[in-house]
Amino acid sequence: MSGIALPLMVSTGATAPANAQQVVNLPLEDRLLDAGFPEVYRIGDGVRDWELLTRVTSIGFDARGNLHIRDLAGGDLSVLVVDPRGELVVRFGQPGEGPGDFRDATHAFALPDGRTVVADDGHMAYQLFDAGGGLERWVRYPGVSEGETPPRFYVRSADPRVRKVDRWDGSILARVAIARRFEVDSTTREFDLQAGTGPRTVLRVRLDGDEASESEVARASRPDVEEDFHFAALPGGRVAFSDTTAYRIKVTDPAGVVDRVLVRSFTPRDWDDRTAEAFRDYLRTSIDEAMALGGDLAGLIGMFGGPSALRQQADDWEPENAIPHVAGLETTWDGTIWALRTPARGFVDVDYIGMFQTALASTPTGLTAAGPGPIDVITPDGEYLGTIPDSRLPNAFGPNGLVAYVTLDEYDVPTVAVRRVPEGIR
């Protein structure tokens, strides 16, 4: 949420306005939908050896309904492809320097045609694999010459990113979530690494040539402010995004121009003493839990003053902006928008310590669905289909109403549950 992570973790009816945007006013009153989606299958319960997962970093469906799961174990990434019955199709991926090996890869993405794209920061390239797990080719990150492997701190394409696949044309939408700046003093050779919020823009990444190309397809109306920025692809090259604390979901045309705004005219939500203190307590609990787990996160806390210093920062935290109405946004294979609203307590569950770790080292946290909160289901044209009460956004949407959720048990072992959404809200 805006103004929250940075103070704690990073200290180093329709009208036609003149700009041709169509504003669609959605109903204020919720029409509740059934949240009981039936389960299709489950992965990670330990019944079969190949199901044992360590850290799911990204997940997605292809057009056949195959689920591509990216699992990170001991820093090594492997990709599991599971068919619509929950049976293993293929598992591939190993560390190394050769073709098809991963040098420093943590995320992978399912393309609609069944191929898999792996973003490998070590090789400074996207690696494309066919449906059987065989390497097709490499595509260099933008600005990286052939055979060059510069420090990733100098390459914007290697900054921690939110990446989502455009399931209609096979490109990737990306937003630099955290921008790193790495400076070296030419005299003393001392270095300074700083991290802050990334540009509030969405880029379309195409993998057609030897080097990836990027073009801007969405931009926040106020790029200089620190507020949430959520986005997802829509059919025909369009993009849906939310960039303010108000409930205003913007839909672009294929050229990236906003031509429709979906509005629910809720009263602005300001922080009060109760919600602010609840958030401070949430931050303190997150620090204590990270220390109890030990390992890398506890070490990271030690690097930045230890738990007492971070708890003091949590105690001193003060809200800067209003509470945003929209806390997350995704789209389905049928092109429907699912907008997660901020619940009554004023915030959704976010691993801020893990976000800081990601900012510095691109090390991903365990992937879990955002929420819980009410989820509005809306068409891009502005038809309000209803609200799913007190739910988490799925981690992945698939064809024919398939959705996947990643959950963690008390030992942080992940399980993937695949469910099916009924017709009418897909």
The residue fraction in helices comes out at: 10-25%
Q: How many individual helices? A: 5
Poorly predicted parts: 1-18
| Rg on CA atoms, Å | 21 Å
Percentage of β-strand residues: 35-45%
Strand order of the largest sheet: 1-2-21-20-19-18
Major sheet description: 6 strands, mixed
The first-to-last residue Cα distance is: 27 Å
Mean pLDDT: 89
Which term fits the overall shape?
globular
Helix/strand structural class? mainly beta
The counted number of beta strands is: 28
Concise description?
With 426 residues, the chain is mainly beta. The chain has 5 helices and 28 strands.
Plain-language structure description:
This protein is 13% helix and 36% strand. The chain is mainly beta and 426 residues long. The protein is globular, with a radius of gyration of 21 Å. The two termini are 27 Å apart.
